[in-house]
Design goal:
The protein folds into 2 domains: about 55 residues, no CATH class; about 80 residues. The chain is globular and about 50 Å long. The chain is mainly alpha-helical and about 160 residues long. About 10% of the residues have low confidence. Helix content is about 75%, strand content about 0%.
Length: about 160
Amino acid sequence: MFRATTALALLQVILCLLPGCGANPDAELERARGYLEEGDYPSAAEAASRGLAAGAEGATTWRLELAALEGEARDGRTDAVLARIDRLAGSWADQVTGSLYVQTAGQLKEGGDAAGAIGVLDAGARRFPDDADIARAISQAKATGSDEEIERLRSLGYVE
């Protein structure tokens, strides 16, 4: 019994070394979604990145990008969030909206970086200067934000 199990495991390893065996974008998307549900945000971002690296296409690519963005935001990784959302705004311009910036800022704040969340709102305001959702989120932060958020708003010129 042990030998058969060992032989099967060895065969699986050998087969995985053949070309074409690797991360499957759809499987990695499901893993990323599962990790997000479990609250394992670093693993969600990693799974999404593996799916993207495996050659995801079309709608799967967009869903993986969103999963990676959410994982990074909820993990408090502001620099990664800003880099990803900026890249997405260039390559997925029709999909990236002011609402995505607001949602991502909220996730980042929940991830423990309130000042970084203000930075995401500011990036959104620069990209979409007339967006009502972003303006509302900035106004709300001015009215109810923590000292850290107010200071960040002040440093960006939103508060005098």
